[in-house]
Design a protein that fits this description.
Layout: H1 5-19, H2 29-33, H3 38-42, H4 52-70, H5 81-84, H6 93-115, H7 134-170
């Protein structure tokens, strides 16, 4: 009987990174996305940074890449700007819900494909069309998710603080006295 211990550990890591409420590294990807409105998802900290919506699209795209490679697709690539980093103008409620649903579906597909493996032997094989192993690919998607979960958390915090500071400046000349809470 073949061993799947490493694949099961990878599945646990992918699930923890995606949605664990008790991940040791901090908020999971789902945790980072919690309480983000469409307006916050479309906003940018600066004109030359990505929005949270664009990052979610990018995360989904790379998860699809991993799934396609697990299915043996040698030719599937996403290294073009339109496939990797979609630019969103306005993000409405429907668009934001769709982006999050697609991310969730990519999680389900990725885990499902890994659950179908019969043993860990594939982990040492080269990814079709690449010069790295499935082991490297799978750990890479975990690291990728963690990186962007942190990025989303920082953007969310930065945008929230910026909105607070803008409200603070807007109310500076109001009827509220120094030290009083205008909210």
């Amino acid at each position: 009987m073949d061993n799947r211990d490493e694949t099961l550990r990878i599945i646990d890591l992918i699930n923890d990174t995606y949605e664990s409420e008790e991940a040791w590294h901090g908020p999971s990807l789902v945790g980072s996305l919690r309480d983000i409105s469409p307006a916050l998802a479309e906003a940018r900290l600066t004109p030359n940074t990505h929005s949270i919506a664009e990052i979610v699209y990018h995360l989904t795209t790379w998860r699809i890449f991993v799934a396609r490679k697990l299915q043996g697709d040698k030719d599937f690539e996403i290294r073009t700007p339109e496939k990797d980093w979609k630019v969103f103008g306005m993000v409405d409620e429907f668009e934001w819900e769709t982006l999050q649903m697609e991310l969730s579906l990519s999680q389900d597909e990725l885990v499902s494909l890994l659950e179908q493996t019969e043993d860990d032997a594939y982990l040492e094989e080269l990814v079709p069309g690449k010069n790295y192993s499935y082991y490297t690919l799978l750990h890479g998607i975990i690291h990728h998710d963690l990186y962007h979960a942190g990025q989303i958390s920082l953007i969310k915090k930065g945008l929230t603080l910026r909105n607070f500071e803008e409200r603070d400046v807007d109310t500076f000349d109001s009827d509220y006295g120094y030290g009083q809470d205008p909210y």
